[in-house]
């Protein structure tokens, strides 16, 4: 008898993160944390697995604090990591001997360490850390003389070098008063590549940023060039002559990722394979290995070898679904990544770059007893002929011949995200959670997302909700025509960009027409793009999606035509609105604004705000609430699957919300 899929099974599951192969490729270290956070402080442990599968994975740290970012010493004898075990939310650098023994705290930096990288040579570690508070900062806090003046007292993150022999921390002054956004030591350890911003605002990440080379010994820095769209995932080639990186293909807002390389002698960034109908997602290289690139390609991911001189990619293997956080051994013979399958959750997988990969962890064995809904790959055409893909999940034990089903469409976030042909289960509205309740679930990948190249992603710039909405409707129409979906029992939901698309969808019914959807779930969604420029932590990105800022004149503005708030007067569909109280990406005012509009027009709705939560829910109790509340909302308005057309509201089967 299959086990029941409960909300507790989902939020109490363990998820791996940040795998790192040892230099000799014999071990992979990774962090493990529960999906849901039970206490105020986050908890994570460092684990170790053998790449040949000869020994079971084992936990190296107790997981009583937030232990993250495992990184190997160049000789593979030590494992460094960050932990806030001494003071919550202030991580310090730790060192653990692989041969056995207790972890040793190496730093006691008052502001905590943000990130680090062991420097080849084995004598130093590069640190990213903000300046500690000074006497004046402490006085201001003590006396509550803490007026915030924009542009003053930025918490700038700086490059520092920790000496493993003396335990001294040396601040690199050659970068001036700039915020360090990314860094990577050279293969010989003599230089550190660094990307800096004028301040810590996240909006800087897609705008021109200087690339510096810092002399590790002297601390002197020189500017090599300006990266036109910023840069992340800095990766040296093995000769130390070129640096590859991933950045937005074009400056500012809606855009796909581009793959770039800088020849350090020439000093000019060069975009590689711009015609690639896929999207570079991550880079990795260690020791004498080649640079490997994980490339998002439709519903799958390929591993490719980068020739940084010729500027070419050579496909080595392709995996169904996603390959996250790839890492490679020093000789390039072994890769490891986070991977899932349609019926197995995320785990650590290991193998040669040419494949196949083998699973080396089993972090959620209880899920093996659950019967999963069959997952099917879909392809259809948009009204303008654009080729699209997505997934369909049916209830466990059911097939297309058992349709038509009540259909819930779930829209991914981003918009530069995607659904892959992997495990579709999580705390947010997810495919297998709803399929287990008897629903068919449609997971479309409309234009604007990842996996089909930059041009595909950039099509939504200033046009979110227009053609991308048509892509989704076209897919639903196909499923209705094929007898999979019951047109009288359609629901829609999503988180972040998916929340926006839900709010948009329920307002797109023509005046006087019955609503297309019986209900919607709007999670952390945008309702007004102009307000996003004022409140979001990435205002230029939001302006690129909405098409304007509101500063151009009295309007109407381009963003008004793509803001769900402009269409609230048309909404008849009941909407469940879920939002985190401390969301900085899509502030909670977006939810309140939409809810007030629904209240003004008498539309059934429920607004739920989760205290303390950012853009994604972290706390276990809140995740449980979101899972149960979401499914109950669909049951209420679509009819509880398996119990005919009964609804908890007692409405008749032929009634539509608003009729």
Automatic annotation (TrEMBL):
<dbReference type="InterPro" id="IPR029058">
    <property type="entry name" value="AB_hydrolase_fold"/>
</dbReference>
<dbReference type="InterPro" id="IPR001375">
    <property type="entry name" value="Peptidase_S9_cat"/>
</dbReference>
<protein>
    <recommendedName>
        <fullName>Peptidase S9 prolyl oligopeptidase catalytic domain-containing protein</fullName>
    </recommendedName>
</protein>
<dbReference type="GO" id="GO:0004252">
    <property type="term" value="F:serine-type endopeptidase activity"/>
</dbReference>
<dbReference type="Pfam" id="PF00326">
    <property type="entry name" value="Peptidase_S9"/>
</dbReference>
<dbReference type="InterPro" id="IPR011659">
    <property type="entry name" value="WD40"/>
</dbReference>
<keyword id="KW-0720">Serine protease</keyword>
<dbReference type="Pfam" id="PF07676">
    <property type="entry name" value="PD40"/>
</dbReference>
<dbReference type="InterPro" id="IPR011042">
    <property type="entry name" value="6-blade_b-propeller_TolB-like"/>
</dbReference>
<dbReference type="GO" id="GO:0006508">
    <property type="term" value="P:proteolysis"/>
</dbReference>
<keyword id="KW-0645">Protease</keyword>
<feature type="domain" description="Peptidase S9 prolyl oligopeptidase catalytic">
    <location>
        <begin position="432"/>
        <end position="639"/>
    </location>
</feature>
<keyword id="KW-0378">Hydrolase</keyword>
